[in-house]
């Protein structure tokens, strides 16, 4: 797949005309969402190039996004956060301990130690509850700016629709 990058990029770059955009996101918005390959945050939410930060990780988990959010807010001026989790997320299918067990089975002692350093892989059993939990986490986080508008959403991979939870 990576072998096609250059060819694909040549096509993209030949039509590219957005090189003038400023660094800070125009909509002062940061979206936290899952890395799931079926989600296109920009297209599904109508976000154009230069308008928002999109922070992606496994599950769209807020605790995993704090480092990026601090940079987004303090250095690049965003003042709104939207947290998205989604239906059929891989994070609903395992428990953190199970992933630790998988790693312990065949990985080196160094790898096991590195996994221990990660600790919680932040899997979760219920989508809506976890969206609320992540929004509360951000609202109570000392590094997230006071007055930040924070909302929580679910993206439905079956329909492409979003619904607001909080
Ligand atoms: Zn997911």
Automatic annotation (TrEMBL):
Domain of life: Eukaryota
Keywords: Lyase, Metal-binding, Zinc
Cofactor note: Binds 1 zinc ion per subunit.
Gene Ontology MF annotations: carbonate dehydratase activity; zinc ion binding
Reactions catalysed, as given in the entry: hydrogencarbonate + H(+) = CO2 + H2O
Binding site for Zn(2+): 34, 36, 86, 89
E.C. number(s) listed in UniProt: 4.2.1.1
InterPro entries registered for this protein in UniProt: Carbonic_anhydrase (IPR001765), Carbonic_anhydrase_sf (IPR036874)
Known role: Reversible hydration of carbon dioxide.
Family affiliation: Belongs to the beta-class carbonic anhydrase family.
Name under which the protein is recorded: Carbonic anhydrase
Species annotation: Cylindrobasidium torrendii FP15055 ss-10
Lineage per the UniProt record: Eukaryota, Fungi, Dikarya, Basidiomycota, Agaricomycotina
